[in-house]
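Hi C.,

You asked whether I'd gotten around to modeling the 798-residue construct. I have! Everything is below, sequence then structure, no commentary in between.
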Amino acid sequence: MQYVRRFSELGMDDVAIVGGKNASLGEMVTKLGERGVQVPDGFATTADAYRHYIRHNGLDERIREALSGLDTDDVAALESAGRRIREWVSGGEMPEDLAEEIAAAYRELGETYGENPDVAVRSSATAEDLPSASFAGQQESYLNISGEQALLDSVRHVFASLFTDRAISYRVHQGFDHMAVALSAGVQKMVRADLASSGVMFSIDTESGFADAVFITAAWGLGENVVQGAVNPDEFYVFKPTLERDFRPIISRQLGDKAMRMIYTDDARRGASTRNVDVPPEDRRRFAITDDEVLTLARYAVEIEKHYSGKAGETRPMDIEWAKDGESGELFILQARPETVHSQREAATHATYNLEERGEVLVEGKSVGERIASGRARIVASSAEMGALDDGDILITDMTDPDWEPIMKRAGAIVTNRGGRTCHAAIIARELGIPAIVGCGDATERVPDGEQITVSCAEGSTGYVYRGQLPFTVERLDAGSLETARTDLMINLGNPEQAFRLSFLPAAGVGLARLEFIINNRIGIHPRALLEYDQLDAETRAVIDERTAGFDDRREFYVRRLAEGVGTIAAAFYPRPVVVRLSDFKSNEYAAMIGGEGFEPTEENPMLGFRGASRYYAESFSPSFALECEALRRVREEMGLSNARVMLPFVRSVEEVDRVLELMADNGLARGKNGLEVYLMCEIPANALLADEFLEHVDGFSIGSNDLTQLTLGVDRDSSLIEGLDERNPAVKKLMAMAIESCRRHGKYVGICGQAPSDFPEISRWLVEQGISSLSLNPDSLLPMQEAVLEAEKAMSS
């Protein structure tokens, strides 16, 4: 055949013939099937077929003249020219020889899938999906097409979509000659995702560029809703290095509302092949795919990335569309193309945006871009009103689609009501290098039109729109120019949402990962309220039911959310060590959680009361502590993140260490098992005074200078009445020196994770002189303190 190629005849060397999308489908069919990656079969028309069609209808010169001198910034002129050209192309006559070849290939496809199989007809431009440019979403797709005539009609409309307004504009701004780009129509067997689910995945974290995670989105029905941002999908992260060693490292999941499902209409032959229906509440409250399916998709992504990276001779992150067939239960890959944002970045350069002050939050959603921008809010209801957007304005809208692209480049940031991190608005924001917050729900109602606002995507996976123009700074780090200190410089980190971004810092690991932040923010419920749910009042149970949506078991909710929070941090820094401090909530802090008040005592001074290790073996709390042990066991044994270490807080006696270690072992978290190291927070004077005795039972110390100062000097950390006493006091330094000396004598780890080295360069220098193994610092103190540490090390060497 001259004008049609079967996928089995195609590969990546055929981009000039069938475009990037169809060449990639052929590549996967021929090369990745043996690796277990399933791709629905099909065929593609060639670039010669498109040019044959254009010549047959005498359109070459007419199109060239219509586009000659066109100002694509003139929205009205662009719309007029695009509409005329599309009408010419879609209304053309299909050449008889081309029509017969398409029909013959379709009949052949029917021999595999049954007569008149339902197919998707998608566009594949011959310059699209290159690593340096993305044509994704600029041309049209037609789904659930059945019958030869409907197929031929769809091919004509696909050809015409080479001249959508957004495609014309994009080619102009990317410097592509309109007439040098041709279009291939890909005809692929439909996957019955209308009866199941579908989504998009990336073999890289789309926000930070963290390369060791697969990011997967999923929603009910056909995938166009996810791509277009019409729904807020479920989100999953899977850690690639341990996945390849047969662990189950789902390190994060987030339930999306998935409010709409795209399904087939009854009669596809009329061209209106799909429609949206509401998703029942019970389906919104459960994940669209199972854990096994998440892991299978992640393995597909890893295999696809490996293959394309091998062909390219360099790491090639991939952007992949997938679907689940509701009849067979099988998972299929529908498209794979190079990811076009992080693949173009200089790996050694990292920009960090810091908001210097916070204000009134107008709305929040999912952050895209890790940047901050401020400007005038401009609410735009539809693409027809895009002329209202001036350069630098913050675009506030319900959702965007490719029709918006000609004007989106003017925006300083984008905020949408709907969409996930792989929706159209998110993809374009990344390409433009601007922040976006998607899936806000009601941004168009809550953000005042015309008012100055600040869009912050630099605070983790949640983005915030603040009222007013707030000050922020940008720090640019060239990691390749930094000198490495002999003393390990680590960071304190409790928020998993920041872990991927902070992993690019030149830190030796995480010296303090606090469970309190994860429990407060990812769980928010007192553990006993989940374990003793039946004792709660109806109102509290309703709140818990809402918070635990997507989980059949409340105990499992607590364990999994905690394990995934820790797992995200451990994965971000793998194989660097991550020291996880077990929970150290005070009774008033636990009481403030959902359902917590009835389970906690009232204490005059919670800071010195029922906290730390003494809680773990208490009859009232030991079942709750078992949840923490189970979460940490999963991180190490099921996710394969053996770089996670455990630290015991606020241990008052040597006997208490033994009781806690025994309880941990009973719950599957035994010191020494699979190399597990257990450290002690040295934060009570007794820990330093009896350091030799304590060290017989643990693998090292991490000095908690905040509590050590409080308990040495009798200063309440929560009170501001007494000032002028801090970690630089000689008594506190003497206890720290005792702890360091004892650890060195026993050949055991000793670090510090308190606030002192982050605040006081002189303390950092002094600790280095004492021979401390590591300093764990606040992330923003890492680079400034590195200079102080290097100075101290050089002084000691001279």
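If it helps when you're writing up: The chain has 30 helices and 30 strands.

Thanks,
B.
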